[in-house]
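Predict the assembly for these three chains.
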Amino acid sequence: MDRRSFLVVAGLLGVAACGSNTGRGEGGGALKHWYHAYGEDGVQDAVRRYAAAYPGAKVEVQWNPGDYDSKIVTALQNSAVPDVFEAQVKADWVRQKQVVPLDDLLGDTRDDFVRALLDSQTVDGKLYGIPQAIDTQVLYYRPSLLAKAGVAPPRTVDELVDAAKRLTTGSLHGLFAGNDGGVGVFTGPLLWSAGLDFLTKDGKAPGFDDPRAATVFGKLRDLNQGLLLGAPTDWSDPGAFVDGRVAMQWTGLWNLPKITAAHGTDVGVLPFPRLDDSGAESVPVGAYSAMVNARSTNIDAAKAYLKWLWVEKTDYQTEFATAFGAHLPARQSLAARAQSLHSGPGKDAVGFVTGGGRIASPARWPARANTALSDAVSRVARQGADPVGELRSAVDIARTEIARLDR
Amino acid sequence: MTRGATRTFWLFVGPFAAGLLLFTYLPIGWSAYLSLFDARNTVTPTDFTGFDNYRDILTDRAFLDSIGTFTLFAVFIIPTTVVLALVLALLVNQIRFARAFFQSVFFLPFACSYVVASLVWKMSLFSGVDSGVVNTVLGWFGGSPRAWIGTVDPPLYWVVLVTARLWLQLGFYMILLIAALRRIPRYHYEAAAIDGATPWQSFRHVTLPGLRGALIAVLTLNLINAYQAFDEFYNILGDSRGYPPFARPPLVYLYYTSLGSGGQDLGRGSAGAVILALVIALATLLSGRVFRRAR
Amino acid sequence: MRSTLRWIALIIAAVVFLVPFFVLVRDGVATGWSTVEEVFTDSDLSFARSLLNSTIVAVLQTVGQIVLCSLAGYGLARIPYRHAPVVLYAIVATLMVPTAVTFVPSFVVVSSLGWLSDFRGLVVPGLFSALNVFLFRQYFLDFPVALEEAGRLDGLSAWGTYWRIVIPNSTGFLAAIAVIDFIGSWNQFLWPLLIAQDSSTWTVQVALSNLLTAQNPQPTLLFAAAAVSLLPIVLLFIIAQRYLVRGVTDMDNSAPLTGPGGPHPIPGGGPGASLPAGGRGEGVV
């Protein structure tokens, strides 16, 4: 009986203690490193390979499918596990001393990291997360389908609404932006399209206390009619676009390899359009960065490992960013190695990031404010609630929550 | 009463009582304490805020909505459960042949977890694609496929949530009712037959009164279970980015507010828990009154 | 005519009830042995480990609950103690406290004990089921006194009587409670979701839920995994259905709700009241 079959049988009997060890106790010094579940094939194997190659300590990687954002904050509650994890820095975690500063790890590589990324992981002048790669999202479209319907690639929000409607015929839908009708992925881009943002420039107040916010979220309601809902996979997976269920999909740039494999040259990319002349085209910039849990029993070892992986091992960093899906490296010196981004849609997307990249999850944007805003947007878009009233209560909550950070 | 008896009593009851103290009474007290602090991202807060958390949560639309969601869910689930469980119990109780088989079939989902049921409901039965089981059946009758879970207006997701829970719990309540049916003395039916009662009359005047206690149990257990609903809501409506703003029952709201991605606010969460405890205490008192009067 | 209608209704209902099981088998197991193999080798799932964890938790919790709750139930039913009514009241009162109220503070207590991602955190808080104590007390009140007297005459203490006479004569009832506890423990979800952070402590339900709410769920793998997770419980159900039915029926007969005094204390959701085991949101079981 080979090992796999044995595992199956043993597992059925409920007696196999295979896989990882029990964590605590055994090995004592094993570092626990958490990632959320990347959708691209090969990432998990790669990060496990990196961890295994670390000479300084035993590192165990945990892959976390599901609601990772909830999971990580629950784990940070008084738990020594994980030691190292990826997330986007939140000012609240810093206030409660749940994460540790990492400035001393960068050394003279600091200037090599994309400045805006480092800034987004910095709270009160201290850096708490080392950026791993730049994630962005774009609007993919099929030029052939648009041409057939006589629709031009949309450059304003109204054109997008119109295009989605006109492209919806029979079983083909105009646009897929997630099973929640775009609430999750479009909240930021809609704000930016109207020249607004989550926070004001100084980060001290909500940046959407403006009647134009109500207008632009109202557009999401209009958009609803051209949207695909109830797809088997969500926005982050290119399935709906690859299978030809939709003419346009908003999804991660990282899916570019799968999408070009399916549709060849019949692929175009666009940034999120602008509402009008006072807004701007944009793409969200997300940066999962590596952090150290302040309750880890071995902070020094965790920091040493983190420095090795995300500062020193540039070959791993390049592979991580470019080999499995299309990400932009977080460091300027590595950008030249990202071949897939030097031509075609990949090159266009790099242009969107440099021209209109916006931080998708600022450290000073509190979790509760985010819930309030996305609840409001969801009610407007999906249930047809009054945008003005919904936004007013979201602004009130956001104002209190942001002010709280400086108390 | 000797000291020996006292010692023996605590020998038996002590271990349990100690655990209950530590894992039920202490948490309730701690909760009341936390509810008076700004306890974000911490279980040992220092920032005393008095009743701010209570004021906050009672004006929080999401919290009030969660009570509304529970009410709506209860309104759907309780009558359907009572009626269908009764129908199943009567059907099974009236047959001789293959009775054990049918009873087992209806009771079997009791063994299934809410997570597994959510999985089947979400990925297969009510999947939004054309090949979803319900959409296929709709197709036979000329209906067009629907996005059951994604459609908010009208709220089709309720169909998914209610049917999942019905499937899981009907068998359990059916067993309760069958046991109660068997406790009704045969001669009551015989007497009714002698009086020339129609089947409906004997159901109305013998069966129903005989089942009153069991029906009250089904009703109350159902209500309490609906109050604690979490598993199927979380697994059917939640995804890797969290939870939509609708159909959030109290437990789901508290989970996201105090432990999930919604802010790690243990103070507010605790205040919410205290308020829910008061609500259920009040409901218990009231229902006690109502049932006593009904007797 | 009536009888035909009845049979049609029964058969339709039975088919509807079996469809979900059919789907699990059709979309999961029936796609081939390789799918089942993948379930055990896929590192996202950590499935063999989580099956083992669920087994450990369910066994420890069942045994622990039976021992602790039957002891307490017996003490309350049989040992004369001046303050016993107060203790009973303090226990039954917790039946009215639903999970919604206790899960946040229980998490706080367990995390303060340093029991996150730890089997102690998964098992221990779920051991103290007030409903079980109540059911055991009711059962022991009806236990034939003559048997116990015989034990006393043989010189046994209360402790000795309990272990030598009472327990061996109560196996049917113990089995009924044990089956219900085991199923409840295996199927619980909310509590392990909070406590089992590290994948080495994931239970089967947590592992399944992680994949179900993932960005890209893999249906075939999920169905196969769910079918495998259900298998032990369905087997238990088939073997022990007799006890299960008895347990549910006893619950109704003796639950305070339907007792002679009318609906005073409500069985607040059984283990749900004492939280973890009832985290499945299925109160009474």
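Chain C touches chain A at residues 36-37, 40-41, 43-44, 46-49, 51-52, 54-55, 107, 111-112, 114, 116-118, 194, 197-201, 209-217, 219, 228, 231-232 (CB under 8 Å). The longest helix of chain C spans residues 219-254.
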